[in-house]
Amino acid sequence: MESTNTLFPVFLKTETAHFLIVGGGNVGLEKAETLLKQNPKIRITIVATYFHANLKEIIQQYDNVNAIERAFDEEDLVGKDYVIIATDKPEVNLAVRELAKSKGIKVNAADQPALCDFYLGSIVNKGSLKIAISTNGKSPILARRMREYFTEVIPDDIEDNLTVLNDFRNNHKGNFAEKLADLNKITENFNSKPKIKESKKFKQLVFVLTLSFLMLFTGYGLSTFISIADLKFSLSSIPNEFYGMLLIGFLAQLVDGAVGLGYGVTCATSMMLLGINLPAISGSIHTAEMFSSGISGYSHYKFGNVNKKLLYWLAIPGVIGAISGAVLLIYLGNKYVSIAYTVLSIYTMIIGIRLIILAFRKVNEKKKIKHTGVLGFSGGFLDAFGGGGWGPIVTSTLLSKGRKSRYVIGTVSLAEFFVTLAAALTFFYSLGVSHWYVILGLIIGGSIAAPIAAKLAGKLPQKTALLLVAALVIVFSCRMILKLL
Q1: Neighbouring residues of 53: CB distance < 8 A, sequence distance ≥ 6
Q2: CB-based burial, 374-410: b 16+ in 10 Å, e otherwise
Q3: I need a surface site. Which of 85, 89, 93, 416 has the fewest CB within 10 A?
Q4: In what helix (H) or strand (E) does residue 57 lie, and over which residues does it extend?
C-alpha cells in the first residue's frame, strides 16, 4: 500500500538560522514562543502592523528578536532562511509564499497546509531527548494531546539515563556488534508498558488532604461558634468584610495561579488595614489558601505543568519552614503586636519592590539551582510568618535561574499546597478558627479563580500583573506603616 504520509522528519540546528515571522497576533506569538522554547538565542525578525501585548514583552526581553512595525515588504526576505506566515489575510499569505518560493526560502503558513514546505510539530522536551510529533497538518490538537501524553510518561530524570548511556557507549571497548548488543540489553526495559499511576497518587493525596481539612474546619467551626439553631441568623448577618474578602480572594488567586505569586502578600496587606490580629491574618490566609492552592496545584498537574523532582525539594523543606514561621508568629504576634506589625509591613514592602524588579527582569540563561532545600525552607518560613511571600521568594528565584515559567509556576503552586497545609494546621492547633467570614470569603473567591488561573498560566501579561500586585502591596504597606507612626 502506497504511503500517504511523505513527510521526512529532520532536526534543524538553529544557531545560524534566521527566521522571518509575518504577523504579530496570537498566531505570531505562538510561533515565536515555539521557536524560542527550542533555542532562546534563535534569530527572529517579526514584521507586522500589529503586535500582541505578550509578543511585545518577548521582543523587549530577547535581544535576538527584532520587530518591524509595518506591512510586509519583499526586502524583508533578504538574508532569511525560513519564513513563517501568521496573518489572517489569505491574499497576503499567498503573496508572501510566492515571493519566498521564488527565492528558494522554505515556508510555513499557519492553518494552511497547502502553502507549507514544512510544519512546526508538537515537541516533547526532556533534557537532551527531543520528540517531534506531526499529524501531516490534519489535526494539530491531536499532536498537542500526544505531546502531553509523552511528556507525562517519559520520566523527568531521563537526562541522567542519557548521560549514563552516552558514557557507556564512549567507554565500551568492544566492536560495533558487541556495543550494540550491550546497549540493547541495558535499554530493554524501555519496551515495557509505561506505568502512569504516580499522577493518580498525587491527585488522590491532594484530594484526601483537602477534603479532610475542609471537614475538620467546617465541623469544628460549626460546633464551636455556630449552632444549628443559629445557622440561619448567622448567614443573614454575614459581615460586609466577607464580600470584600471574596473579591480579594478571587483576584489574588487569579494572579497567583497565573504568574506564580502575589496571593499571600495581597491578602495580608489588605487584612492588616482591617485591623485583624497577626496570627489570625496568617492563619486565615493559609487556611483559605490551602483549598485554592490544592485546586490550583491539581489543575497545574493535570495540564502537565509540574516538575516532580523539583516539587520534592521545595515541598518538604517548605513544610518545615512553614511550621517554624507559624510558631514564631504566634509567640511574637501575641506579645509584641506593634513590633510585629512594623516588621511585616516592611517585609511586604520589600516583597513589593522585589516584584517590580522581577517585572523588569530580562530573561536569563538557564543556570544550575543550588540549595533548593534552603530556598524551600526560607520561602515556607517567611510565608507563614508574613502571611505571604512563598511565590515572590521561590518563584522569582527559580525564574531568575532561567527556568521555564510554565513549570516553575505549576511546581511552586503544587508545593504551596503542602506548605499552606502545614501552616494552617499549626495555626488551627494553636488558635482554633477565628474570623470565619474572612476565611470563607477567601476560600470561595480563590477556589473559583484557581482552575481559571491554571489555564491562563503563561498567557497573561506577566509584567503588567506583577506591577499591579507590587503597586497594591507597596501602597498598603506604606499606609500600614503610617498608621503605626
Answers
A1: 461, 464
A2: ebbbbbbbbbbbbbbbbbbbbbbbbbeeebbbbbbbb
A3: 89
A4: helix 53-61
Beta strands at 122-126 and 129-133: parallel, antiparallel or unpaired: antiparallel
- End-to-end CA, the chain: 85
Q: Which residues contact 79 (CB under 8 A, 6 or more apart)?
A: 18
CB 434 within 8 A of CB 221: no
3-state secondary structure of 193: coil
pLDDT score at 214: 61
- Grid coordinates representing 222? 460549626
Kindly state the helix (H) or strand (E) to which residue 129 belongs, with its residue range.
Answer: strand 129-133
Cell digits of residue 331: 509567640
Q: What is the pLDDT of residue 193?
A: 47
Angle between helices 278-302 and 240-259 (to 10 degrees): 40
Half-sphere exposure of 239 (CA within 13 A, CB side): 12
Phi-psi sector, 275: left (phi>0), alpha (psi -120 to 50), beta: left
Q: Which amino acid is at 57?
A: E
Give me 223's grid cell.
460546633
pLDDT of residue 472: 65
Please report the pLDDT score of residue 80 as a whole number.
93
What is the helix (H) or strand (E) element at residue 69, kind and residue range? strand 65-69
Q: Give the number of other CB atoms < 10 A from CB of residue 9.
A: 10
Helix (H, G, I), strand (E, B) or coil at 116: coil
Output DSSP code: residue 75: G
Name residue, grid cell 520534592. Answer: 312
Element (H, E) at 44: strand 43-48
Write down how long the chain is.
485
Q: What is the mean pLDDT of each run of 10 residues along the chain (485 residues)?
A: 71 90 92 90 94 91 92 92 91 91 91 84 80 77 77 72 73 72 67 49 61 63 57 62 76 67 68 67 71 73 79 91 85 64 71 75 58 84 74 71 70 86 80 66 77 64 68 70 69
Question: Which of 225, 328, 239, 250 has its CA nearest to residue 275?
Answer: 239
